[in-house]
Amino acid sequence: SELSRLGRLRHLNLAGNNLHGSIPPELGNISSLELLWLSGNPLDGSIPTELGRLGHLQYLGLSQNQLGGSLPSELGNLSNVEFLSISRNFLNGSIPSELGGLVRLLVLRLSH
Predict the structure, then answer these.
(1) Full-prediction pTM beyond 0.85?
(2) Which of 7, 9, 31, 100 would you call most buried, defined as having the most Cβ atoms within 10 angstroms of its Cβ?
(3) Confidence category of residue 31, pLDDT binned at 50, 70, 90
(4) Which of 14, 33, 31, 32 is nearest to 23 (CA)?
(5) What whole-number distance in Å separates Cα of residue 30 and Cα of residue 57?
């Protein structure tokens, strides 16, 4: 993905753009990201484990897509995340215990 070359990018908001396909794992290489907002697209596939490498991320919005599979435990590595919205997808399985370590988390949205 060309976006992974944007090493200084802090905010990436592509919400509501009718984007199709899966979330590129390469987004996990944009280490400067503080906001990643992909809500309201028909994105499918699973949530890439690589997103857990986004150590500066504060806001992650993946709601209102068609994502499936389980929540990756690697999201528990997002030590600076304050807002995590993954509602209205087709996820299954249990909530990873690693999410309990997100001490800065203020908002968690996992509803269907």
Answers:
(1) yes
(2) 9
(3) very high
(4) 14
(5) 10
Asked whether the beta carbons of 23 and 47 are under 8 A apart, the reply is yes
Provide the token pair at 64: 């209102």
How high is the pLDDT of residue 80?
Answer: 98
Instruction: Kindly give, in sequence order, each residue whose CB lies less than 8 Å from that of residue 93, ignoring residues fewer than 6 positions away.
Output: 69, 70, 71
Sequential DSSP letters for the chain: -GGGG-TT--EEE-TTS---EEPPGGGGG-TT-SEEE--SS-EESPPPGGGGG-TT--EEE--SS--EE---GGGGG-TT--EEE--SSEE-SPPPGGGGG-TT--EEE---
Q: What is the mean pLDDT of residues 51-56?
A: 97
Q: Is the pLDDT of residue 2 over 80?
A: no
Distance CA 76, CA 52 (A): 7
